[in-house]
Amino acid sequence: MRFWVGLYRFFVGLFKFSPVFMLAGLMIFKVNCLIAAPISTVYAFVVASITEKFKFNDLVDCAVDNVKHLNLVFFILMLAYAMAEAFMSTGVGASLVNIALSLGVTGRTVAVVSFLVTAILSVATGTSWGTFAACAPIFLWLNHMVGGSILLTTASIAGGACFGDNIGLISDTTVVSSGIQGVEVVDRIKSQGPWSIICLVITVIAIFALSIAMGLPTESTNAAAAIDKIPHQVIVDLEAKRPSAVELLNQVKSGVPYYMAIPLILVLVVAIKGLPTLICLSVGIVASFILGSFAGTVESLKSFLDLMMSGFAEAGSWVIVMMMWVGAFGGIMNKMKAFEPLSMFVLKISKNVKQLMFMNGLLCLVGNAALADEMAQIVTVGPIIKGLVEDKVEGSEEDLYQLRLRNATFSSSLGVFGSQLIPWHVYIGFYVGILTAVYPLHNFVAFDIIKYNIMSFVTVGSILILTLTGLDKFIPRFGLPSEPKVKLKKEEKVKKPII
Asked: Using alpha carbons only, how large is the chain's radius of gyration in Å?
């Protein structure tokens, strides 16, 4: 009888998890996310109704409640798209491209430069979304001009943009993941800082080595000559799809004042002061308008407002809609406790603390893939891995605090960087949308971007391997306490009392 009960629970748990397989399958077969997400959400509604007998209105409420935490992200997205439009049209992007060219950036170094610049900017702003939106137009066209690898540069921008989102003091993922685990943000950054820097250095070396292996050119280029090589029909198509990109190319060719780089510098300064991301993006937009008016790249207030409207429309046309569906999907999966069988499985197979912590990391990665949203993973899986440590591990408060720090790092690192390895993730959809809009010369595919994202492979792989093997002890501040300082509680101590 016990066997049949266990078998029944297994298939029920598998059925609850099946919406994840549907979402992944649809995306793998290249079904548009705006179709795949609603279909999977409706299917999750059906599964939750069957398994948990939830009423339709209750499921709608939980879906809407889960979308609410994305409201701030929606505003950030709109301003990020608007700032991208402003930076491309007013000369900010052109000035940065020309400065980079004057410093001798080549096809062999452009990916490394784009990676380091986006890493610095993301730490200052605390957002990978805004960093990618602001830097992609600049570095993709710079890459075009110096003959770099479009996929390596694209993936480098993505990896660098995620660096600060994982460790920045003002990053929402850093703050939320630390809060859920009950650790101080400063302690968290001190703990993971040395490891993050090591990952950064390894990635820089790997990107440059790959650039050499590709045989990318080492000669500086003449911007005007590179732009003249773009086929006329491509310019015509680009004008129809993204007029601001054509404006950026024209400004690079004709030249703009170097002081047009100031808006980006101001964004950095304001972010370092600790002001919210919305203010940082707003400062960039306002500064680009004021300085663009002096430089003659802004014709009028009306034309600039048209740029803002274009950016808002671009964000709202599909990215925000997609995120709303994915958020609703995550809310329903959480409502029917689709991840509960996974947490029970972790408790059964973990034989020591290292294995338990390793499995906590895998839970974050699986949750990220299931929910297709790193913040949804943080708020959904975070309490689960916190409870596993509290219920399963015994040790001093100091040692348990170190475990909670690792849980917070898991939530954020495997959320932000794990998203870069999941082709159906909302992050990847955002990237492809931005890339297609600002550089339509290439047909961007999620898998192509993923395979070149060295930073994500280094980060995700290293934290899991270091945790499981205990080699993290060789990294300052990053090592976990080893047994017998911490050890799994005996089985009878974690069993619920029989009433």
From this structure: 24
**Token code pair at residue 347:** 């408790």
Confidence of residue 292 (pLDDT cuts 50, 70, 90): very high
Q: Which two tokens stand for residue 462?
A: 């290293």
Please list, residue by residue across 45-58, b when 16 or more beta carbons sit within 10 angstroms of its beta carbon and e when fewer do: bebbbeeeebeeee
As to burial, measured by CB atoms within 10 angstroms (0-12 exposed, 13-18 middle, 19+ buried), residue 208 is: middle
What is the dihedral angle through the alpha carbons of 369, 421, 242, 309, rounded to the nearest 10 degrees? 40
The amino acid occupying position 420 is Q
Q: Distance (Å, rounded) from C-alpha 337 to C-alpha 315?
A: 32
Rounded CA separation 461/458 (Å):
5
Could you read off the pLDDT of 85-124 as tens digits, one per residue?
888 788 887 887 778 777 778 899 999 988 988 887 777 6
Q: Is 487 helix (H, G, I), strand (E, B) or coil?
A: strand
Residue with tokens 């960093």: 131
- CB distance 363 to 384 below 8 Å: yes
Q: Is there a contact between 52 and 336 (Cβ–Cβ < 8 Å)?
A: yes
Name the nearest CA neighbour of 399 among 469, 487, 492, 490: 487
pTM: 0.73
Q: Count the residues in the chain.
A: 499
Q: Which of 357, 346, 351 is nearest to 470 (CA)?
A: 357
Label residue 180 by pLDDT band (50, 70, 90): confident
